[in-house]
Amino acid sequence: MSHPRKLDLESKLSTQLSGIPRSGIRDFFELVIGRSDVISLGVGEPDKPTPWPIREAAIRSLEKGQTSYTSNLGLESLRIGISKYVEEHFRVSYDPKTEILVTVGVSEALDLAFRAVLNPGDEVIFHQPCYVSYGPSITMAYGVPVPVNTRLEDNFALKASDVEKAITSRTKVIALNFPTNPTGAVEPPEELEKIAALCVKHDLLCFTDEIYSELLYDGAKHKSIVEYPGMRERTVLLHGFSKAFAMTGWRLGYACAPAPLREAMMKIHQYCMLCAPIMSQMAGVEALRLGAEAYEGMRQSYEERRNFVVKRLNEMGLHCFNPGGAFYVFPDVSSTGLTGREFALKLLEEQSVAVVPGDAFGPSGELCVRCCYATAPDLLEKAMDGMAAFVAKYRKAGA
Amino acid sequence: MERLLELLKENARLSAGDIATRLGITEAEVAARIAALEKEGVILGYHAVVDREKTDHSGVTAFIEVRITPESGGGFDRFARRVSQYEQVRGCYLMSGAYDLAVVVEGKDLYDVARFVAEKLSTLDVVLSTATHFQLRTYKHDGFMLNTPPTDGPLLVSP
Lengths: 399, 159
Description:
Number of domains of chain B: 2
Distance between the termini of chain A: 71 Å
Strand order of the largest sheet of chain B: 2-3-1-4
Number of helices of chain B: 5
Number of strands of chain B: 6
Shape of chain A: globular
Helix content of chain A: 40-55%
CATH architecture of the largest domain in chain B: 2-Layer Sandwich
CATH architecture of the largest domain in chain A: 3-Layer(aba) Sandwich
Radius of gyration of chain A: 22 Å
CATH superfamily of the largest domain in chain B: Lrp/AsnC effector binding domain/regulation of amino acid metabolism (RAM) domain
Oligomer: heterodimer
Helix content of chain B: 25-40%
Number of helices of chain A: 14
Structural class of chain A: alpha/beta
Shape of chain B: extended
Mean pLDDT of chain B: 91
CATH superfamily of the largest domain in chain A: Type I PLP-dependent aspartate aminotransferase-like (Major domain)
CATH class of the largest domain in chain B: Alpha Beta
Distance between the termini of chain B: 36 Å
Number of domains of chain A: 2
Low-confidence stretches of chain B: none
CATH topology of the largest domain in chain B: Alpha-Beta Plaits
Order of helices and strands of chain A: HHHEHHEHEHEHEHEEEHHHEHEEEH
Radius of gyration of chain B: 21 Å
């Protein structure tokens, strides 16, 4: 009788995966989990639940017994709603039948878009610090991630000149996300226009993740790269319900793209996901019917919280620009003599306030931390008090 | 409604400094505006919103529908103002529909309120009829949800 060889599962895993590090957010999440005393500025979501009329629409659809699959593309009524909403907000129109795909969050849509267009070795340019999934999603689609750093002195806007330097003969896609998670940065129209011109000049595709596009402050109006000449035909516009409508857990997003691109994404989606959950889609129909009425109050409240947090952070000596969108601030903590990760760990330990180390969003965020201010105002105030005491202690120690 | 009032309605304990930071105006402007709103009687007062079921308060609250004959010259106003004078009356509203006034009354117990209706309200000449409804349980009060079952909190860290 032969002894069975010990099974080595590590050796069975895809080599494509082994090059991808664990998310820096997950490391940190495990330190915090189970602690009830923590004030968290560490989440990427609104503090309030989904507005009641949207929740009620989902409940009603369940009561009616709407529990089946939908078209792979998503409910037609939802795609029509998306088409109207996108036209109103982005001034670009898409055909609900051939150019819109409903997905399980923007994350799925982004993954589909990369997989639909990338051949092994194709390069994707994206700006860093950025949402954690860009690099890994590109790698998993056998592409080559080409991060371009954005800087605090530019308010983390992306310079077209930096993009141009990163373009090679293998570049296929430029991926954008403005307003940006984790910095709250908004892209100035003049740079956006230049990046659009680069896309056209070098015949590149553009994937624009518009998930924070409703959350803009100081009276600003959103401008997407898709609006510039020559862009609609080469752009995949990715959007969803998570942030503006406070619907993170519903996992509902969509992609708008010219028919051949939408069809390629659809092919992957139909085999790996089939369709987004119908109850989420029914909720989405109601969310779009309500539109700004559902989120304007939240947006206004975030703007006020942003004003409060930016003022407090700068007063305590953490350099922080005034971000024009999303619900994050990304202060530079180097004046404490700590890196972002050290700062976050010690702040959690000493003041029970959770923020996310900036390096989770790429190496260029090393000296920063991300604080989400979509947190109840009284908790936000306590968190700022804790941070102020913490910063005072470390600045003194370093002086 | 102006945003400053909305903020105070949500949380009257916000300082002028806090409000100024949030709205991007100066503390002096906020203080002046609040003073003006108080002077004009737009802001009548400030109070705590209390879940009475969690206190040792044992009183009752009743909503009383009152139908009256409007008085010549004064309409409903004279009667409404007169009823409002009673300390037990926490609210008094002129209504459209099947009755004229809704009067909110607080009392020590059911008999206390019944006495008020019988002795104070019904005895007034213009009152045609009353219907008294006692409040049994509060689910939402002044915009706050009460008695909601707890749920799992959100994650503490997420991307």
